[in-house]
Write a structure and sequence with these properties.
Elements (H helix, E strand, L loop, with lengths): L20 H17 L6 H8 L3 H7 L3 H26 L4 H18 L1 H9 L5 H4 L1 H15 L9 H20 L10 H12 L12
Helix pairs in contact: 1-2, 1-4, 1-6, 4-5, 5-9, 5-10, 8-9
Length: 210
């Protein structure tokens, strides 16, 4: 079994970790409110009410306030997201299936994540700080580190990291520049993307890509 993905940390390491049951309840409440109203309109008082706790309890769990809370939520959701993609890769029989299912699972999870969809649809500006040239390169680098080891059954370690990164680049490009005739949550569409743009860089082509 390939080791699990490395921990993806987005929270300031100087802030205390929130791991208690009440903290998880607060994070769940925050997620629900963001899906309903968005990040900007989600206030700490509303979070406390949704979570059924006092503001004092909220601040004990997240002493850094709203920024601490949002960063902790982002980290939790990102770790779960990457973990699900890694699991799909680990269940694949070959490289084509691994990359295809990585794209499909990533697409379906994003599509079904109500809070993420609200932000993409109504608050895309919040994502810009993470999508600049240097910042997005860090994202791709983290992807290579987290998911590359799960592709080492099919490729040498250095090539596995590149495969993970290139897949992430293709995925993000299509997310922000969608095509009406291409649904990456569909296995056949995702396989076509993988066959045409990714596999030729890593394995010899014996048949024409669909």
């Amino acid at each position: 079994m390939v080791p699990g993905p490395v921990e993806l940390r987005v929270v300031d390491p100087d802030l205390p970790a929130a791991t208690t049951e009440s903290a998880e309840r607060i994070l769940d409440a925050t997620l629900a409110l963001i899906a309903r109203w968005g990040v900007a309109k989600t206030a700490l008082g509303d979070v406390a009410k949704e979570a059924g706790c006092s503001r004092a309890t909220l601040y004990r769990a997240f002493p850094g306030g709203k920024q601490h809370l949002l960063l902790a939520l982002g980290e939790r959701e990102l770790v779960a997201y990457v973990g699900a993609i890694a699991e799909a890769i680990d269940e694949a029989a070959d490289l084509e299936e691994a990359l295809t299912m990585a794209v499909v699972v990533a697409s379906r999870l994003l599509r079904d994540h109500a809070a993420a969809q609200f932000v993409l649809d109504h608050e895309p500006g919040l994502l810009l700080p993470f999508l600049g040239f240097h910042q997005v390169d860090r994202l791709y680098g983290h992807t290579a580190i987290a998911l590359g080891p799960h592709l080492e059954r099919f490729l040498p370690a250095d090539r596995a990291g590149w495969a993970a990164e290139w897949t992430a680049r293709a995925f993000i490009s299509f997310i922000f520049n969608p095509r009406a005739d291409l649904d990456l949550a569909d296995i056949d569409d995702a396989r076509g993307l993988v066959q045409r743009f990714l596999l030729p860089a890593f394995v010899p082509m014996t048949t024409s890509p669909t």
